[in-house]
Amino acid sequence: MDAAEAQPVLEATYRLLADVDHTRQDAVCEALDRPPGDPHTIHALEHLYENGYITGTTIEESLAPIHIQATEKGLRKASGR
User: Fold this and answer.
1) CB atoms within 10 A of CB 66
2) How many C-beta atoms surround the C-beta of residue 34 within 10 A?
3) In whole angstroms, what is the distance from residue 66 CA to residue 77 CA?
4) Least enclosed by CB within 10 Å: which of 27, 40, 52, 53?
């Protein structure tokens, strides 16, 4: 997955994080009008996590965090800087 494919997921994630300190995978899927556990969204979250755009709590089955938090790098990217 490249950055352009993950960009909509990054933007949706940071919209959700604008007023709270963490969000969940399913909330990101819902914000994108996708079903819970949507594989494309989960893959994008894995990409964002691996590249330092988000952080959070992961489980063994996936690198995508189940509880997602912002990073400085992600905040800059989401704001277009």
Assistant:
1) 15
2) 17
3) 21
4) 52
Q: Give yes or no for a contact between 32 and 8, defined as CB atoms under 8 angstroms apart.
A: yes
* 3-state secondary structure (DSSP) of residue 54: strand
Per the DSSP assignment, residues forming a β-bridge with 70 are: 54
| pLDDT, tens digit, 9 for 90 and up, residues 37-53 | 999 999 999 999 999 99
SS3 label, residue 34? coil
List 62's β-bridge partners, or say none: 59
Fold of 3-78: Arc Repressor Mutant, subunit A (1.10.10)
Domain boundaries, the chain: 3-78
Residues of the chain with pLDDT under 50: none
Query: CA 14, CA 68: separation in Å to the nearest integer?
Result: 10
H or E segment at 69? Answer: strand 62-70
